[in-house]
Amino acid sequence: MNAIPANTRPLDGPLPRLAAPPGATDCHMHLYLPGFAAQPGGPGIAELATVEDYRRVQARLGLERVVVTQSNAYQLDNGALLEALGQLGTETARGVAAVAPGTAEATLREWHALGVRGARIMNLPGGAVTHASMLEVERLVRPLGWHLMVQFNGQHLDDYLDGLQRLEGDYIIDHIGKFMPPVPADDRRVDEILRLLDRGNAWFKLCGGYETSTVGGPRYEDVGAIARRVIAHAPQRVIWGSNWPHVGVPRERYPDDAEQLDVLLGWAGPEACRRILVDNPASLYGF
C-alpha cells in the first residue's frame, strides 16, 4: 500500500483545556518519514508522519519536548529515527531505538550523541526485539545510562515478571500496562506493577488508552481507573505520551490529540500533572 501523504491527516483543532506547563514533554510518539521503507516482520506504513506535521501538533498542545519512539514498521532499521532526531535537535528531543543483541558499543555511542536514550522491548506482534533479548540488551545500554521501554499485554504480566525484577537499570512499563482487555484497578497484576514501581527503577507511561479501552473516550474510565491508582501511588514514576500519529488503530478511530492530553485532568491533580509532564521526563531523559 502506498503511504498517504502526511498533510492529508487532520492536525489542527481546538486547544486542550489543560495548559501544558513550560518544559512539558511528549514521551511517546512515532514518525514515518519519506524515503524510509517498512522492513520485513513489521506492519506496513499506511501514512507518512513528518517532523513538520508533528510540530503543528506539538504547538497545538503546548508541548516543548518530545521523545521519538522507533516504529515497529522499521524493525531494526533506526534510520528514520536518527534522521528525525537530527531534524528535531538534542536540546528538545530524545529517541528510543530498537537495539539488537550484539550491537557495537561504538554504534550505541553514535546514537547517544544524536539523542537516543532508550531501547524498545516489544512483546506484541510485530516487535523487533522481545523479552527474550531484554536482559542482554539491558547489559548493552546500561553503561550509557539508557532505559528500556517495555510493552506487553498486562493480562500476561506473570510471563514477564521475573525478567522485569531482574533488570538493574531503569525501564518503562508502557501504555498503561496495555491490559487487553482492561482489568479492575484492584487486580492483582496492578498490585504487582505497584510493587515494581516501589523497587525504584520502573516507570509507568500513560499512553494510548484508546487502543485498549472498551468504554472509549473522552474519559476512558476503564484504563483510567488503573492510571489513577498508579498516579496516586507513585506520581514521581509516571510519564505521559500522545502516541501520535495513532496508526495502531483504524483511521476512523484516531483520537483527538487534545483529548489525549486533557485525559490527565481526570486522572491527576495539578501537582501530579506537572510531575508527569515536566519533572519526571526531565529526570529520565536528561532534559
From TrEMBL:
GO terms for molecular function: hydrolase activity. Keywords: Hydrolase. Residues 26-287 form the Amidohydrolase-related domain. Pfam families: Amidohydro_2. Coiled coil: none annotated. This is Amidohydrolase.
